[in-house]
What we know:
This protein is an alpha+beta fold. 30% of the residues lie in helices and 18% in strands. The strands form four sheets. The protein has a four-stranded mixed beta sheet.
Amino acid sequence: YMDNEWGDGLPLVPPTRHNVEQMLKATPLAPDKVLGSIKSPDGSSIIANVTVDKVAVNAVMAGAKPEYFPVIIAAMEGISDRNFSHHVFSSDGSFNLLIAVSGPIAKKINMHSGTGLFGHGWRANNTIGRAVRLCMNNIGNLKPGKLDTALTGRASSHTFYVLAENDALSPWAPYHTVRGYKAEDSCVTVSGIGLGGDFSGYGGGTGGAWTVESVLEGIIGKIAPNRRMFASFMPGVGLGAFARPFNYIFVLSPDTAQALKKRGFTRQSLQDYIIDKTSVPYEELSKAEIEGIKRRLSEKTEAFGGTDNIPDDRIPVFWENLKPGGKIPVIVSPENLNIYVSGDVSGYNFGALYLLGAHSTKPVR
């Protein structure tokens, strides 16, 4: 298998006909159903179509149980969605992938969401991520040093980062409810995250005293400086590579979420609060920022497959606020602020960011 570049350097389970058939029995989908496609790094062409049977082969090799298969399918549907940017898998920067599972399926298949939530020792979490990794290797041909050009590799690249929401300890409805799904649904969200994982901490745990205020200040302080995108239209020019819109992910520990709930925050009102606190009043914008915003709203760039542009449905919001009394959002859309609850009591709060265009939520079928 390694001689043919089918593996990831670890022992594999042989995808015999029997093993693959057992995996396929776990889904009502036809083996030849096309879930989507893997695109070339620049998004201009299709490398391969993702079919259910191809995913099953890689799930078997990863050591996944059949009951995990619907979650793996949902993850691959998200990644192979036509709007999902595959820059995260091919860039020479060590960007990475987060796979987040929310809803009843996580408990049903014994996914871990407590202490050591990203750690080893949890078959469901680890083999779900490994199956997705092998799919990208074997279906998408994203092999290290070839189409995957990450100069230092990708942290946790055998499994990516696999997360299950801790519904038992969360005071709020599951994450996917803000994406339009019902609480009783199960969903998988795939998201690009920054270089090497790029997880920033926002307090919590046992390392020192923390307050709700300090956690919120840290989160707001991470987002607010990205107003630099206002004044820089061309990516990486003048104000550096971070002068662009981002998708944000924050993972709160259950005790932090419960403390926020006591302050009256719902998941939605917390999202609204952070968006408001990081938006910039028109009166505080510099002349360069105003001109930069106008360029972003009026012109398109092909950088990163077009994901550096303000989405069309949000352009009217910016124009409406680009006047006295208005506030320009640093978080381009509410869909670009994603808040999960995971870990254990006395857990840490952390977060990551990535370019727009690499975020998708799909239901588990």
